[in-house]
């Protein structure tokens, strides 16, 4: 289950939905959301795939400290580059504000990984659900059950401890909430 909800899969769907909601009734937001989150997701997936194929790490989701730090660093740089590209191409300012969450979350998870192996899967799921709840309505908060399921899967696979999963969920939720609430 966590493979389907892995970063960067879930943020693509959420990025499109939130972008469409922010710019409604103008459908251009959907295109910006798909372009920004989709480009970042493709870059991250390509880096994970190339790293695994070249032997840099054993799987698409490396758990070793060094490969994880390399992939998170590259993901953060990719997020900033995609965000700057969207700025250059003229994306609406309110979408750019939301778009800051991806590189910011990647940088913070990277910083936390220096101390502990925070769950990026759980952070990504929590960030996604937080954006949905803040932009599409509180009813979407029911999807925090999905965050719990992702966290459970990370525990079940024995790639994270409870503290790492809870820290990821708290980080994803707080980063997105802070970005959104500071922009409003």
Explain how this protein is built.
75% of the residues lie in helices and 0% in strands. It has 184 residues and is mostly helical. α1 packs parallel to α6, α6 runs antiparallel to α7 (144-156) and α7 runs antiparallel to α8 (162-183). It is globular and about 45 Å long. The N and C termini lie far apart (34 Å). The model has no long low-confidence stretch (mean pLDDT 88).
Overall radius of gyration? 16 Å
Oligomer: single chain
Shape: globular
Helix share of residues? Answer: over 70%
Query: How many β strands by DSSP?
Result: 0
Order of helices and strands: HHHHHHHH
Class based on secondary structure composition and strand pairing: mainly alpha
- How many helices? The count is 8
N-to-C span = 34 Å
SS strand fraction: under 5%
Poorly predicted parts: none
Mean pLDDT: 88
Largest sheet, strands/sense/barrel: none
Write a brief caption for the model:
The chain has 184 residues and is mainly alpha-helical. The protein has helices at residues 9-23, 28-53, 65-89, 93-99, 101-113, 120-136, 144-156, 162-183.
SSE topology sketch:
Blueprint: H1 9-23, H2 28-53, H3 65-89, H4 93-99, H5 101-113, H6 120-136, H7 144-156, H8 162-183
Helix pairs in contact: 1-2, 1-6, 2-3, 3-5, 5-6, 5-8, 6-7, 6-8, 7-8
Features:
75% helix; 184 residues; mainly alpha; 8 helices
